[in-house]
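Running co-folding for fe (ii) ion.
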Amino acid sequence: MNEYTTVPPLRFGVIADLHQDIMHDGPERLQAFIDRMKVADVDFIIQLGDFCFPIPENEVILRIWNLFEGPKFHVLGNHDMDRNDKLEIQNYLGMPNHYYSFDAGTYHFVVLDANYYKHEDQYVDYNNGNYYAHGEQLPYIPDEQLQWLIDDLSRTDRHTIIFSHQSLHNPTDGVRNRDDVHAALVAANQAAEFPKVIACFNGHNHIDAAITRDGIHYIEVNSTSNQWLGEGYEYDQYEASIRSRRPAMKYVAMYADPLYMTVTIAPNMIQIEGIQSEFVGPAPRERGHEGIVCGHEITATITSRHLMF
Ligand SMILES: [Fe+2]
């Protein structure tokens, strides 16, 4: 795969941070994504975490998700372990493992799990919201998982894309050992003598951004639903039934349209097709928020991009 070849392009759909348990319209947003991915006839779909709690009321989300008949993949987000452990959400979603890899078309894909905090030099799985008390020591890709990643990359000669919930790059809210992860990716590319790892996609921050470091593209996938603004920035103009059913909605800047991306990988290029929307109600700055999260302006947008490799 290290030379220009006439391989057919691969297409996949990405949706991040649905937050079904905050939003009043999670099913409609997911349905819009699935409908679009069917029309686009993508090769697979993937969601980047903070999807839905594994409770009976959320089975509507699984039913909609399963309307896409092709391969479907999940990434674990921190909030997916707010009320349960990893095994419970894995079983609910039908995940083979909490980190794993797969091939599609002529490409290789890796799903990582950064939902660990460090306590007395031990990595501890997020579990029933335990991580809320350990904000300064999270998140991490544990040593064992990093070694698995190194071994997994050494076994493939395909261009590779990595998915994670938390950023593998962002200095504000990315994984703490991001420099070790990046070094492993650079080493894999040097050993291969071609750009093996071409891109990393993450959710979690609900921002729209892309940066390139040592030829590897790090892409922040905006939430399909909202940005969390928190106390002091409430917008509470929703109808009473929404306010009572979804009390946390007032703390978010909601996006008017569901956001997601369609990604096409062609030889030497990653093409991202995004969506431009707008905020429901006043924009974050109009609500007194500084309007910036993790170093980037809050927007109701996923930017369309062409990234070369
Ligand atoms: Fe998250």
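Result summary
The chain has a mean pLDDT of 96.
The chain has six helices and 20 strands.
Job closed.
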